[in-house]
Amino acid sequence: MKKSILLLLSLLPALFVFAEPPESMTLVSGGKADFRVVVPDNPDWPTKLAADDIARCVREATGAPVKIVPESKLADEKEERIDFYVGLGKFTEKFLDEMPKPYGYIIKFPDAKTIVIAGRLLLKDNYNTLDGVTYFLEKNLGVYNLMPGELGMVIPKLEGDWRIDCRDITRVPSLAGREFSGADGRWYSSAEQSKKLETIQWIRRMGMTVSSVLKMVHNVGNLIDPEKYSWTHPEFFPLIDGKRRIPPKVNLKKDWRLLNWEPCYTAPGIAEEAAKNVIEYLKKNPNLYSCSLSVNDSGNICRCETCLKVNANQPPGSESQSYYEWVNKVVKIVRQEFPDCYFGILNYWVTRTMPENLKLDSHVVPVVCEDFKFYVVPKYRERLEKRLRQWDEVASTIGWWDYGFEAEYLVPAYNAAHSGALLKDLYKNHNLRFYFNEWTPGPYWKNIPEAYMLTKLCWDIDQDPEKILDEWFELAVGKEAAPYLKAYFHLWEEFWTEKIPQTSWFIDRAEQEIPFLQRRDGHYLDALDYERVEKALTLLDRAVELAPEGKERRRAEFFRDGFAESTGLYYLPYINSKAITAAESKADGNLVHRYGFDSGEENWVSWQSPGHTAEMVHDPAAGHDQAGSLKLDRAESLPTSMVYFRRPLDFQMEPGKIYRFRVWVRSENLTKNDYVRMVLYFPCADDTLLGRAYKTLPAAFNMPVALSSDELKSGEWKRLEICLAVPESAWNGKVVGVNCQLEARAEETHGKVWFDDFTVEELTDPALASLRHAEFRSGRTPAETQER
């Protein structure tokens, strides 16, 4: 009885402090704000951004300035106003039990003089509060965040007073985990850091949060640390070809523990040791909800007798059975001390196939790593459905790691109808609750409508993707211009859903069941033709013409000018070079430069990933026309990785000229899916173009040409060659040279490749020159459009 009375007394303040809230409130009247924003003392950056957004949007919509007051200074305020509390402070903490955990927020009207928007902290920041404020401004003031930066924000002008309905809301997202990665990555030049910040802010405003609920990135190498266990437990490391492979430390690469190796998951005591390390990690980080048990990157699995036996029914190269059994053992131990912890695991490469006769612990969330773009093809969609039905039996909940690669594709990789429908299906029918997209945007968001649509669905999966997109197009450029901008994106949707699936670039990786399409291989541009580029520019010109003056016109120009710039830099050079390469096989050329490798490497530098020990040397005996060549011997090196020779070429390209690059190749003992490639890279004067990380044109414009193991008959010399039609003016002052990379990839620990007689020739045949398309006008750059 005493406890009941105490409980009742503890509730009395909450019961009697607040009067009944009204049905509506006036927040701005007569051009004056009738409220102030109250924030916690020393607010975190999402809370500060949320408060600033309220003040800014209200000022721009109504003309009324809004005061932001720290909570500790509220008592100093003399004027009576509505107190609009934003974030988790002393006052709003009394509503903590009403706030969803861990994701979501409340919008509450305790009385006629108080508004609360708040959510729980995620780790140390209040992204939930920012989500709530963004939703409040959209629903009550018509504010939309269409794209990053000032250009993307829609703030309508409001005539008269601003009055809102007082309706308490508790909002929880459909997907617990929602993330676009890469916003803080390398796609911003040294002069574009403000654009990077705008992108991060946009992603957070749209409710795509940090991965605080489900940790899922590569992590096994941290749990079984080579520095710690290589001497005490060498049996924890993989046995490959009879040798225990312990990954070497690479001082300049902080993630070296996570690359090119997998533990021996059947080693005695390895589950117990990993569990001990997880428990220690969780004790040091009490705010975490989860820990990743995900495999390392790039494979190289253990092939000891026990692992081979356990994985006997798995395909070659898969360790699914031993790995998932290890996961369950680790989780069982950890949950004895941390029963509420969740564990993210990547269903990726070596663990992609299903384990047999095994049900994962209910707190284990496998994250399927698959590029959504594969599943526009019915037969691959059917293959996926089969796997998903298997996952329905093995796991209670799944996540998804998608590969948008927004900045790295040179043309918009627009698949909005497909990706929206697939996301909804995975949620409704396969219990998807976590969605992570490796979006890697840059300052020029070529595919922003799809990104916007996905963020909306992640919060409310019941929305109609087509309605979201139609609203976006009309808000972006106005009612008259919207059909033309929509038609422009539909042009690329047709390209990616109908043309691309017919290319070898797509089919080869789909058939091998590789998780993602290779955006750094420019062969997808083989599906691009001049007519599509011309039509796209025509649609964008029309959108610019019809868009109203102001932000709508500037947004239309942003897309038009960005596409026009890319046309001159990338599309036409690729289209022209492809046409000339196909036609030049018998054309004579004038020798510009030759690397014969008769007496040495001639400054071609070799590279291979950490832990790989391929022999990369000059071979004085073997050669094409005469003795001397570059030799690559993978004997007893780790498999599955690329190795190459590379150097800047000693000649200066001239505008408007055509060059042919040729090298002779011979191989021995390659296996299926192995290949040899010659790749051209184009260094730039600075880091302002899309390949800014390496001061080159983007890797997707690397113009590769390859020979498969089937085409490389052992012992015979074969030629690799490609032509380059240098633009008349688009590269002037930007592209300053050409680098070449001679690559080889092998799936096993054997195989030899020789390269010889590399030549650069100028082609002067008028018939080849006639195949070129003339350059379009370039327009402004996207950055210039944003800055106007």
Topology, element by element:
Elements: H1 2-16, E1 24-29, E2 32-33, E3 35-39, H2 45-62, E4 68-70, E5 82-86, E6 105-111, E7 114-118, H3 127-141, E8 144-145, E9 153-154, E10 162-165, E11 169-171, E12 177-180, H4 193-205, H5 220-223, H6 226-229, E13 239-240, E14 243-244, H7 270-284, E15 290-292, H8 305-310, H9 320-335, E16 342-347, E17 364-369, H10 378-394, E18 398-402, H11 416-430, E19 432-437, H12 448-459, H13 465-477, H14 482-499, H15 504-511, H16 530-546, H17 551-583, E20 590-595, E21 605-608, E22 615-619, E23 629-633, E24 642-648, E25 658-668, E26 675-681, E27 705-708, E28 718-725, E29 739-745, E30 752-763, H18 766-769, H19 782-787
Parallel strand pairs: 3-4, 3-5, 5-7, 12-19, 15-16, 16-17, 17-18, 18-19
Antiparallel strand pairs: 1-2, 1-10, 6-7, 6-11, 8-9, 13-14, 20-30, 21-24, 22-23, 23-30, 24-29, 25-28, 25-30, 26-27, 26-29
Helix pairs in contact: 2-3, 7-9, 11-12, 12-13, 13-14, 14-16, 16-17
If you had to describe this structure to a student in words, what would you say it looks like?
- The protein is built from 19 helices and 30 strands.
- It has 788 residues and is an alpha/beta fold.
- Mean pLDDT is 91; it is low at 1-17 and 778-785.
- The chain is globular and about 95 Å long.
- α11 packs parallel to α12 (448-459) and α12 (448-459) packs across α13.
- Strands 4-3-5-7-6-11 form a six-stranded mixed β-sheet.
